[in-house]
Amino acid sequence: MKPTKPLLAVTLASSLFAVSGASWSADGPPVAPIRPVTETYYGTPVVDDYRYMENLKDPEVQHWMKGQADYTRKVLDSIPGRAVMAQRIQSLMGNDVRRDNFTRRGDRLFYDLFEPGASVPKLAYRDGINGEEQVLVDPAKLSSDSAHHFALDWYSPSWDGRYVAYGISEGGSEKSVLHVMDLKTGKALAESIDRTSDCVVSWRNDNQSFFYLRYPKAGPDTPPALSEYNAATFLHVLGQHPEGDGDDAVFGKGVSKDVDVPEGQATYVLLSPDSPYAVAVANRNMDDNPNTFYVAPLDKIHGAKTPWKKIATPEDGVTDAQLRGDRLYVLTEKGAPRFQILSVPLKHPDLGLADTIVPQGANVIDAFELASDAIYVAERAGASFQLQRVSFDGKESKSIGLPFDGTLRGLATDAHAPGVMFGLQGWVKAPREIAYQPGAAAAADTGLVPPSKTESDAYEAHDEFATSYDGTRVPVSIIAKKGVTRDGTHPTIVLGYGSYGLSLDPAYRPEWQAWLEQGGIIAVSHMRGGGEYGDAWHRAGQKLTKINTMLDFIASARHMIGQRYTQSKYLAANGRSAGGIVMGGALTIDPGLFRVVLDDVGVSDALRFETEPNGPPNVPEMGSTSTESGFHGLYAMSAYAHIHDGTPYPAVLFTTGANDPRVSPWHMMKMAARVQEATSSGRPVLLRVDYDAGHGMGSSTAQRANQLADSWSFALWQMGVAGFQPRP
């Protein structure tokens, strides 16, 4: 057994002295006891020194976690410049009125409203683009004290726009409770249905009832891995069973002995106001990867007796399905790694006989929506997007001009109205809400999002390509002040994610200016595992090929050095969630490459990931230890298993939210304890805990600003930047 010496307490003073010329008198963080558990996988023994931390309810674990959090808070608050940085970030984040996540119901528009000074978004609506704005739900008014906050998780309006169902959760937990608002009276109805996280609500044409998903109630003996798993779909009628108990289950695992529904995180039903059919989805991870799809006549949906017919399995590559009358349109990657759109009659929905509406082309099809006049298709073209208008039979297609190159998000259409609305933004271009009507020469700004007060011509963005270990060209987006000099002096953050086929598309982040103002650079690595180049790019960075994602990230960092933007002593790695796997690679593959690693709510012990609440749904992406190949893939990407004693690791700030439902806090806890024990560099390894936060969804503006200020001030301190060095 390794000795439980307080390594960080011994070395922190010398680290601070070496970096800043200042001494440090604070005590070190609490040292975690080492209690090895050895598990042998297919002949490979793996030692876990901190397995006991997975019991988050253990008072000893909680005491250690609190001690770490308190110590980290003391260290970060002592960094000069940190408070000013937080104020600057929050002012940048809270300056603009933002409206997004639009849904159309005729002329009525629903959307999320971010007002200057507000901590969380509100739910609002207006009748017509120029109509008066009405606030429906303000989560900030639900808090009884400053220590807790509530957030709006999702919303879904009825087809006639009178009612809207919405989810509210507390403290970033994403544990949504479903409520319903009546716009006619302006009052909430009696509905209060819990266990509706990530809910998909589909209203029926009567506008008095809807389908919704709900997770099973966990009992005292429910294992964590099954606590948010196999959500079923229920039918709810307004005014009946206001707490959901007694609603009929219509689809899900175990609902009917006659319908084989695969295990997964959730199930839900999709409807269209002009279609007599319903599509049911069994979604493994509530994402846009291939899932299992079923169809049934809407008038035949009667609880467990509903005659659902399976029309697609994950092998068919269908990632989205939409109804129009008696036809179904699907987005699929089968035989088309850049995706294609197919259509089948719902009376005989055989994908093998489907009509090709939009064939695979040079670009990646990112999303599509159906309006009354046509199909609107967003295509990914390198670092920007294109919009196509395609006839329902696919015989006519038109490219729609956009105001500027950028990321196109949130296609909003109405089945009974022509045209489309969508958001458009870039790395240095603030979001606009754009609309296109048939017959117009191009899409135009609606004015729904006022001009940003923070958008500045002082900054620019461009793309370069790093060369990975195997010759693969990896795009790197570089955001910096205009005319940045290549003299190797710039504090640089390399950002990466690279999982689930999700892309890090250009997005306006006004708070980044607080880093750029320090002479800094932000470089976004578009690694394999993401979706920048379609399904093949995604699959080249998952399971046994996940090493490509990590090595692509390292190649991106080395590119920034090779092109003389920065040096290792000014280099930070930053990733969150599944990007924690990449942060683990930054630590373990080349510990000397980065001066700082910022690991936010990251996955670090991939071998144990499937044992937690959000673990099983991620098996298709990450793999499972239940198979030998799955173990080898997870073992390679599990940084926690590859931390070695006596290694000079960089400075690290691990961040977690105590209420995180997606990546359990014990990932960051175990990793912090292990690196604190193992490092020989003398650089600080800190664990930051927000007890009123989860995975980041639902966090307030102040929480996000403080987290960024902590991370960036910590990085600038360790890089030796003036203004962030502790005084003697």
UniProtKB/TrEMBL annotation:
One of its GO terms (molecular function) is oligopeptidase activity. Its EC number is 3.4.21.26. Coiled coil: none annotated. Keywords: Hydrolase, Protease, Serine protease, Signal. The keyword Hydrolase applies. One of its GO terms (cellular component) is cytosol. Residues 1-25 form the signal peptide. It catalyses: Hydrolysis of Pro-|-Xaa >> Ala-|-Xaa in oligopeptides. Residues 29-422 form the Peptidase S9A N-terminal domain. SUPFAM superfamilies: alpha/beta-Hydrolases (SSF53474), Peptidase/esterase 'gauge' domain (SSF50993). It is an enzyme of class 3 (hydrolase). The keyword Hydrolase applies. GO terms for biological process: proteolysis. This is prolyl oligopeptidase. It comes from Trinickia violacea.
